[in-house]
Amino acid sequence: MLVRASRPPNVAFVLPGLGAGGSEHIVSLLCNHCAAQGWAVTLIAFEDPSTAPYYPHHSDVRIIRLGMKSRRRAAASGMLAMVRRLQLLKQALKRVRPELVVSFLTRTNILSVLAARPLGIPVIVSERNNPALQRVGPIWDRLRRMTYPRAVGLVTMTQGAMDWFTAAMDVKGWVIPNPVPPAIGLAERRPEGRIIGAVGRLVPQKGFDLLLAAFARAAPRIPDWKLVIWGEGPERAALERQRDRLGLAERVSLPGVTRHPGEWIGETDLFVLSSRYEGWGIVVGEAMGAGLPVIAFDCQWGPAEMIEHGVSGLLVANGDSAALGDAVASLCNDAPRRMALGDGARRRMATFGHDQVLARWQSVIVAVLDHHRVRVGS
């Protein structure tokens, strides 16, 4: 049962941008869910106002773009940019006057706490990656240790991430996995489908270099199969060079970001997650929810919490590209097993249903709001 506040809440969600990433996806789902409940919802992003959101938003969601998206800078200019972003966010919060801020991703979380706390606005921060392996830099790490204890709570997607934070700093919080969106249903099987799909930003974390090595090992055994890696990022040129060096130019494509969310699902017959580490592995859940067979590195954290090895997918020792290649070749040559794992994947994802997960988010937000209202006497 959904928990409701004593009066419609006024909540602001804050994140860096409105692109095609996993954090942007969950924020769009949360904004739409809350707006449908009759809440006043504002979405604040640091990106340029000319950028169109990748994910759809409810017509009642107010979107504010601050025009100063975070990017790598030299130390001095980076500090000035941080101060400017802090000022812009604080000005936006003064205009909106939300009762609660819900912020996503480390640097944005820090800025949200620094901007909202002086205004008396409580903040929930949410981390969406593996804090043990994702490096934020010494300055941001110190700021995180200073600001997170001042937030009313932290949301992570896995218990492993929460354990890391509670051991490193004085925080309390909630573990809420990512939902499988309702729009992603059973993928239609193309009669002669032979596509291995992977999705993610083209960065070292996603391990697409390891996936190319794995596919090179498997390729002679699966001559009718091709690999498609959807996404964009700074590693594109290096990955294309590796692909060509391996002699896979005719069998591996990198078409960029799909035009529409989840469009890759209908083009995929077997999904592979090759990440070195993850916060959850959102695309794994999307693939499994669509009934696709999945192979994933058993990286920290997320895949092992979704996949029951041999029942709803396959887990491979993290970073072992040879083992990944062997698993890919074996599964590509075993259609009945692909179908069985896809069926098991779809059943498993019922545990992470859209309505159940968003209800958990709503319950947390309402509990924080009710406590804040009592404290301030409103």
Automatic annotation (TrEMBL):
* Sequence ranges assigned to domain Glycosyl transferase family in this UniProt record: 191-347
Keyword hit for Signal: no
Give the transmembrane ranges.
Answer: none
- Which domain of life does the protein's organism represent? Bacteria
Instruction: Name any one GO molecular function.
Output: glycosyltransferase activity
- Protein keywords: Glycosyltransferase, Transferase
Classification via Pfam families = Glyco_trans_4_4, Glycos_transf_1
Task: Enumerate the spans annotated as Glycosyltransferase subfamily 4-like N-terminal domain.
Answer: 21-172
Q: Which family does it belong to?
A: Belongs to the glycosyltransferase group 1 family. Glycosyltransferase 4 subfamily.
- Could you identify this protein by its name? Amylovoran biosynthesis protein AmsD
Organism equals Sphingobium chungbukense
